[in-house]
Structures are given as structure tokens and as C-alpha cells.
Specification:
Arc Repressor Mutant, subunit A, single chain, 2 strands, 179 residues, 9 helices, mainly alpha
């Protein structure tokens, strides 16, 4: 679960099954009662219909928790943490970062750092489209050491420079307005 809408869907499905929950957080649900096999199966099926997956495997649950911390940090926080990402993730999950990193790489096939970079670039794209911040301000907000560093990473991930990406979007919007 990486969005508020996902949390709403999960809460609704729990209510539909008559289950009482203590907490529904990103990637994690705590309920009062023990699930019967039938309830477990029904919840799993209902969530799948909504595009969500019920995870039972401890590794996958941990991966989802790591992803949720990263998504929250990059997309939903007003500002990025002042400490290293590794320290932030480790503190949030109360686990050794090396352990988290090894499991993440083993299961996902990419490093946590690569996952963070992909999400940072997605956030930069959003900020470019909003057109409220300069590239320098975006670079500072996303904790890049310089605009050049941001631009190099952006180009490596997207194949485009941030400026060209923004121009493409503006040109496309202009074409739509002319229809």
C-alpha cells in the first residue's frame, strides 16, 4: 500500500468481512481477531480485485515496508530527511540497513539506492510539471549536491535533460490547447 486510497480500500474490505482493525498503515494492517482460513482467502481475493496484494511472506512484507518508507520520504514529506537515507530507513524500520539492503536487492533485483533514485526522478518530473520551482530550487529540495548532479541523474534515468523534458511537456500541452 503506497497511497491513502489503498488504505481506504483495505479498510473497506476489512469492514466488509466484519474484521476490526487497530491500524491500517502503508504496507501494514493490525487487526484484533485471528483470521480464519476462509476470511484470509476472501480478503486476499477482494484485495486482488482492487489491484492490491496480500503479502504473507516475511521478506515481501519487509520489502513493502522499505518501499513505503521511501515513497513517504520522497513523495509525501514536506522536506527530505536531514540524515542519510540509509539511516532514515534503518531508524523507521528498526532494522540494520545492511540486512534491509541485502534482502531488498535479493528480492527486487535492484539496490535500495537505485529505487530511491527512480523515485526522486519521478518526484522531480512532478515538480517540473507544476512549474512552481526553478531547477535550482528542485535540486535543493530533493537534496542533490548541485543542479548538474540532478541533471546528470535525470538524463541517466530518463534519457532527457530536465529542461528538454519540461519543454516537451509544455509543447504537448500547447498542442492539446490548440485542438
Amino acid at each position: 500500500m503506497v497511497s491513502l486510497r489503498c488504505k481506504m480500500v483495505v479498510k473497506e474490505e476489512l469492514r466488509n468481512l466484519g474484521l476490526h482493525f487497530i491500524a491500517v498503515d502503508l504496507g501494514e494492517v493490525e487487526i484484533f481477531e485471528e483470521l480464519s482460513n476462509e476470511q484470509h482467502l476472501q480478503l486476499k481475493e477482494n484485495l486482488l480485485r482492487s489491484g492490491l496484494e496480500l503479502l504473507d511472506d516475511k521478506k515481501n512484507i519487509l520489502i513493502e515496508r522499505i518501499k513505503a518508507v521511501i515513497v513517504e520520504m520522497i513523495h509525501y514529506s514536506e522536506e527530505m530527511p536531514k540524515i542519510n537515507y540509509s539511516d532514515h530507513i534503518s531508524e523507521k524500520l528498526n532494522q540494520d540497513y545492511t540486512y534491509l539492503s541485502n534482502i531488498f536487492s535479493e528480492v527486487k533485483g535492484i539496490t535500495i539506492q537505485q529505487y530511491i533514485i527512480f523515485h526522486k526522478i519521478e518526484r522531480v518530473k512532478e515538480l517540473l510539471l507544476y512549474d512552481e520551482l526553478t531547477l535550482t530550487e528542485i535540486s535543493y529540495r530533493m537534496q542533490y549536491s548541485s543542479v548538474a548532479h540532478l541533471s546528470n541523474q535525470f538524463k541517466k534515468v530518463t534519457g532527457l535533460t530536465p529542461t528538454f523534458y519540461k519543454q516537451l511537456r509544455q509543447k504537448r500541452q500547447g498542442n492539446l490547447e490548440n485542438l
